[in-house]
Design brief:
Blueprint (H helix, E strand, L loop, with lengths): L2 H11 L2 H13 L4 E2 H8 L3 H14 L2 E6 L2 E6 L1 H12 L7 H13 L5
Antiparallel strand pairs: 1-3, 2-3
Length: 113
């Protein structure tokens, strides 16, 4: 992953509301949620949510699919995995114990296996 792309993904997540939406979508799993359900769960106005989902989508962190008349939003796990890998690639500098807790948590997470 290029540094520029990593910075764009981090910028998309740098807003508390967008980070909360992304984390929720990660937790929900690949089935995702309709925008109305996301708005309800986050107590967010529809236009604000739309703007936040647009930023996340343009960054490649969220993907959409149609289900009848609804648009379903879900986390784009490969982008998340690539970002996490990029952030951890050089973190240990010969000291694997620094990254070990994160590696263990990633191994336990069902989305990353």
């Amino acid at each position: 992953m290029e540094t520029t792309l990593a910075a764009a993904l981090l910028a998309a997540l740098a807003h508390p509301a967008r980070l909360a939406v992304f984390r929720m979508l990660v937790q929900v799993g690949p089935e995702g949620l309709a925008a109305g359900e996301i708005a309800r769960r986050t107590d967010t106005l529809p236009n604000t949510l739309s703007a936040n989902l647009s930023v996340l989508s343009h960054a490649g962190l969220v993907q959409t699919r149609r289900d009848g008349r609804s648009v379903i939003y879900s986390a784009h796990y490969p982008a998340m995995t690539d970002l996490l890998t990029f952030l951890m690639e050089d973190c240990c500098q010969g000291r694997p114990e620094v990254c070990e807790p994160v590696a263990r948590a990633a191994a336990r997470a069902s989305c990353c296996n």
